[in-house]
Amino acid sequence: MTTSGGDARHLRKVLEEAFDDEELNRFCHDHCAEVFNRFALGMTRTQKVFELVGYFDRRRELPTLHGLLRHERPKWFQEEGAPPPPRTTGSPPVPAVAPPPTGREPVPRF
Is the pLDDT of residue 98 over 50? Predict the structure, then answer.
């Protein structure tokens, strides 16, 4: 997933897949307040992503956005052909199956 810094499609994909809405808001607030100030209540994450990438594209500064994203999400810019990392929600994974009973479980009291 390497890019020279000028591929708007790749940058949109990273923003869409590597950031949740809160993280995207924080990223824009920290790195591009002018775009953050354009966000309106009810805007989708996709609309925010297009606003951000469009802002840098119109100014011919996609390499700047690329550098910021590479710093924030380095795993998304690994070698070509490597799958992107899974997006995390901050919660630890939940086991699919409960562990078998050991016979030492506490008895519930009512």
Answer: yes
